[in-house]
Amino acid sequence: MNDYTKEIEKALRSYLPKGDGNTDTVINSMDYSLMAGGKRIRPTLAIEFALLCGGNINAVMPFACAVEMVHTYSLIHDDLPCMDNDDLRRGKPTNHKVYGEAAALLAGDGLLTLAFSVILGADAMERNGAEKCVSAAALLAECSGANGMIGGQIIDLESENKEISLNLLKIMDEKKTGALIKAACLLGCISAGADERQCKAAEKYADNIGLAFQIVDDILDASSDTETLGKPVGSDEENKKSTYVSLLGLDECVKISRQLTEEAITSLNEFEGDTSTLKQFAAYLRDRKK
Amino acid sequence: MNDYTKEIEKALRSYLPKGDGNTDTVINSMDYSLMAGGKRIRPTLAIEFALLCGGNINAVMPFACAVEMVHTYSLIHDDLPCMDNDDLRRGKPTNHKVYGEAAALLAGDGLLTLAFSVILGADAMERNGAEKCVSAAALLAECSGANGMIGGQIIDLESENKEISLNLLKIMDEKKTGALIKAACLLGCISAGADERQCKAAEKYADNIGLAFQIVDDILDASSDTETLGKPVGSDEENKKSTYVSLLGLDECVKISRQLTEEAITSLNEFEGDTSTLKQFAAYLRDRKK
Fold first, then answer.
1. Residues in chain B within 8 Å Cβ distance of A106
2. Of A67, A205, A280, B150, which residue has the fewest beta carbons closer than 10 angstroms?
3. Mapping DSSP to helix (H, G, I), strand (E, B) and coil, where does residue B225 land?
């Protein structure tokens, strides 16, 4: 699999605001979570789809960074005491454990806002033009908003300590995790000027790996250990959350995650270019250990 | 003064997401704060500057609504227990008092995200075109982000329970309150296709009324009563915050707020159109009782 981590992290760093010396706390807090490593799945997907559809890495990079900023902000807010109240993220103390709740709240707000500064900024405009930037930013807002990721988070919140149906669990994950993965894939398509058929295939790929990704997350939470995973395991069971594992069992989950990965790989047949890296990426998401 | 409240609130309501029945809590929570009244100062400014520069109310309306959404999100997050921990806002219980902290957090996130959906949405694009929408959204992001409003909030947070200099207080307010007021005025200019001279004059007007607005806020907190103001008074003194009143005294603050208002009114001489409503608006901000 191609590894764009270095390029992505260089670009992410370049887009962090410099500040005027009075606002260092919030900028450092944004930096802390944005540069805390992670798999960079979403920006990688944006880059891969851009390349597959004839685009280039420079043009898609601001879009790729924007989606990673939205993802990072959602993690900071998700970890807050009034939400999941998590102390560890990627093996490190969560943002509010280091900077305090208020600065973590503002750092999340700052990263969400920065995503739109970057996706509409000078680099994005110069390399993609106004029409593509508007499409990209509007898509990112839609997928991140109350009908997308935030909608999934409220369902998640209201599902705590009670059993929910498999149907509602799927709706929740389509919004909470799936929407931003879909945004990532489509941002690549938009930057490359992909046609409708390509966008639909990208969406199908995203939907399948998105659901597989969430099922694998549940599998890991139920069967991994804290050291391997880099965060506490068993939190789903502890919080009495309905998960694919609790509703369908571990074996069935492994089976479904494989089926979804196969379907994702099949959807790539719509593309004429080299899809080997995206196929490997789907398999990697299925087989990951953290 | 022209009153566009009815038109603004109709448009704001039309832009709230409908949801699919699973996400009602966050949508209702967004609705609660967005439709809770308030003076609609920022959207009114956007409309007035658009009209002054030869634009029209339909074109600027999505921009005007976007800035009000950003303002509302900032109030919801500002009121949270980890920030100002306020129970009342505009005479009503604050968002988290009604919907809980987690839903209030998400409602704020949702409104910030929605602002970008609206400023780049179908209405905005149809009525303004892609170039103006990109300029408008990029400006809104810049003024709302870590170098703008959020930067002001972190300075505010770190200034609690200690004295700060008049210089830092001004920098804080320029960012915390001033940046979004400037965004509002300039969004009107952008929608109308104003020239650079007009934008500079609008910025000067915004800077002056922005600072005057904050000084008047401090005056009211120090000298009004809860019933008139619709929120608890004396909170600045209680929190040992440095304010213009604590640093300069009440009389000097009244004098300066008048000078700034005069300067704001003078800056309008750059425009050829009818500036009477914006002049009255500056005077209204100076003379308001809540």
1. 77, 150, 153-154, 157
2. A280
3. coil
Confidence of residue B160 (pLDDT cuts 50, 70, 90): confident
Q: Where do the structural domains in chain B lie, given as residue ranges? A: 5-287
B144 → chain A, closest CA residue: A113
Tell me the average pLDDT across A272-281: 93
CB pairs under 8 A between A and B: 173
Residue in chain A nearest B140 by alpha carbon? A117
Q: What is the full DSSP assignment across B32-63?
A: HHHTS----HHHHHHHHHHHHTT--HHHHHHH
Backbone φ and ψ for B89, nearest 5 degrees, come out as -150, 125
Domain B5-287: CATH superfamily, name plus number: Farnesyl Diphosphate Synthase (1.10.600.10)
Per CB-CB distance under 8 Å, the chain B contacts of A157 are 25, 102-103, 106
The reply to whether residue A125 touches residue B134, judged by beta carbons under 8 angstroms, is yes
pTM: 0.95
Choose among A170, A154, A157, A177: nearest CA to A243: A170
| Pairing verdict, β B92-93 and A88-89 | unpaired
Inter-chain contact A26–B168, Cβ cutoff 8 Å?
no
Q: Pull the structure tokens for residue A95.
A: 């943002």
Q: Which residue has the tokens 């605001």?
A: A17
Report whether B79 contacts B215 (CB < 8 A).
no
Taking residue B238's Cβ as centre, other Cβ atoms within 10 Å add up to 10
Q: Which of B15, B31, B120 to mutate to test the interface with A (most CBs of A within 10 A)?
A: B120
